[in-house]
């Protein structure tokens, strides 16, 4: 499977039915989390994002009912992600490769920065990215850190984890801090227990990866956080991407470097 | 008049009726723009801010009907600014030192970063700030640049202007770029005509200041922009600060340095 394709080709394959995590796909282009809610919940969701900018950096907000975005003008948000989750009252009632039949005219979609976007910059700085090496989805964990709630929405911070060799932790911090729109610097370096994570080998989302001797688990805020808020707050309806199965945009990743 | 007081003392004087521009007051503490709208317009306003982050960096959003903010726990947003403007259908129907009689239970207030916040950092870098030297309000101008609209809200970008000696323009850019939450780097350096500004001596808001030979007019995005959107889009009701008469917070300005 050739991941090193352009974003349009990647989306075309996902639209045709390929269901794979998107880490490493279309290198050089930003990826995004998707969370779509009915218009009457959109204020709470946008305020939740504003109040929790580390996990929820907003890249775009669609018009109600629209399934397009300037982040990828030719794309269709209903079909072009490799996998979606459909939520009713906080329960995941379906996981699908095509959300068309669930999309509603009153849905507002937030596209939120994804840390896959800075992985090319990590590789360019000779920082290893283990889930790419092992061809897996990134491991993600629910934490014991509460997000600041907004209206009817609240829930825990979700993080992604990358094991980094101790001498390169500072480089990983420095490189990713330059990308605040895609989660930026880590929220936690080392000791998983400090986030209430008891077992790195059992992530709440995605796949476990190998942590070698001399490596430190480094945690970044994760755009699955709105899904955790949906689980905790049980709104009537929502559509999200499946964790790790992101929206590949046409925006060069360096656009988000500051 | 002693401006070099703490933020609580500054707010106390404004609450007691002092009506002066706040540039130079409570040095070392962040200041904020205020724009409050009915809850049913709050989504459009928050989305307008999200889509126009240079003029509208959101520092806090209040709960509907609340007149308090974590940015200054002891403060009352209805009384503690030196001057307010009351807007009905896009017309300024009153300017007052006390907005209590106009405040409504359905109002949501956005507090938006203000460039007065980085002026101490400019002074610390030996960059002159002319309106402080001349003890005037900062000059502000409507531009011919359209903001990206959101729902029912749209309007032009408003900018503040500081004349900077040519050898110090780079320093002014470098210093203010470190404060993205209070408008960050300039949006335009030099030629006012490029923004559609025909006469620097006639600002749309605030006071004119002297521009000396060898100085370049430098323009920063301004938190009066939401007021210009109110004027252009004519929502039923809004309350704002009067331009230059800001909310003085308890947040140290260095908090917003990145």
Short description:
Two copies of one chain form a homodimer. Chain A is an alpha+beta fold.
Question: Your description of this structure?
Answer:
- The structure is a homodimer of 258-residue chains.
- Chain A has 258 residues and is α+β, with helices and mostly antiparallel strands.
- The first copy, chain A, is 19% helix and 27% strand.
- Chain A has helices at residues 7-15, 39-51, 119-124, 130-133, 169-177, 225-233; strands spanning 29-38, 58-61, 84-88, 91-96, 107-113, 140-146, 156-165, 188-189, 215-221, 237-241, 247-252.
- In chain A, the strands form two sheets. In chain A, strands 1, 2, 3, 4, 5, 10 and 11 form a seven-stranded antiparallel sheet that branches. The first copy, chain A, has a four-stranded antiparallel sheet with strand order 6-7-9-8, with helices on one face.
- In chain A, a hairpin with a 2-residue loop joins strand 3 and strand 4.
- Chain A is globular and about 50 Å long.
- The mean pLDDT of chain A is 97.
Task: Please count the beta strands of chain A (DSSP E, at least 2 residues each).
Answer: 11
Main sheet specs of chain A: 7 strands, antiparallel
Q: What's the alpha carbon Rg of chain A, rounded to whole Å?
A: 17 Å
Helix content of chain A: 10-25%
Largest interface: A-B, 8 and 8 residues
Question: What fraction of residues of chain A sit in β-strands?
Answer: 25-35%
Spans of at least 5 consecutive residues with low confidence of chain A: none
- Structural class of chain A comes to alpha+beta
Q: Name the overall outline of chain A.
A: globular
Mean pLDDT of chain A: 97
Distance between the termini of chain A: 33 Å
SSE order of chain A: HEHEEEEHHEEHEEHEE
The quaternary state of the protein chains shown equals homodimer
| Number of distinct helices of chain A | 6
């Amino acid at each position: 499977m050739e991941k090193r394709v352009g974003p349009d080709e990647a989306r075309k394959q996902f639209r045709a039915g390929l269901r794979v995590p998107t880490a490493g796909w279309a290198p050089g282009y930003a990826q995004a989390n998707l969370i779509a809610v009915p218009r009457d919940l959109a204020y709470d969701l946008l305020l939740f994002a504003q109040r929790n900018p580390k996990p929820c950096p907003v890249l775009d907000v669609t018009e109600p009912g629209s399934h397009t975005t300037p982040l990828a003008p030719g794309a269709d948000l209903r079909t072009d992600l490799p996998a979606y989750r459909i939520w009713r009252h906080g329960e995941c009632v379906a996981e699908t490769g095509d959300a068309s039949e669930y999309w509603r005219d009153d849905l507002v979609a937030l596209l939120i920065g994804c840390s896959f976007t800075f992985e090319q910059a990590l590789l360019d700085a000779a920082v290893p990215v283990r889930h790419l090496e092992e061809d897996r989805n990134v491991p993600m964990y629910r934490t014991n850190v509460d997000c600041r709630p907004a209206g009817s929405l609240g829930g825990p911070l979700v993080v992604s984890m990358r094991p980094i060799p101790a001498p390169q932790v500072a480089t990983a911090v420095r490189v990713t801090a330059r990308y605040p729109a895609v989660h930026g610097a880590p929220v936690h370096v080392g000791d998983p227990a400090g986030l209430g994570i008891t077992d790195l080998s059992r992530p709440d989302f995605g796949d476990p990866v190998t942590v070698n001797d001399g490596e430190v688990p480094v945690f970044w805020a994760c755009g699955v956080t709105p899904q955790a808020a949906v689980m905790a707050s049980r709104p009537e309806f929502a559509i999200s991407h499946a964790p790790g199965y992101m929206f590949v945009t046409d925006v060069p990743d360096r656009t988000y470097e500051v």
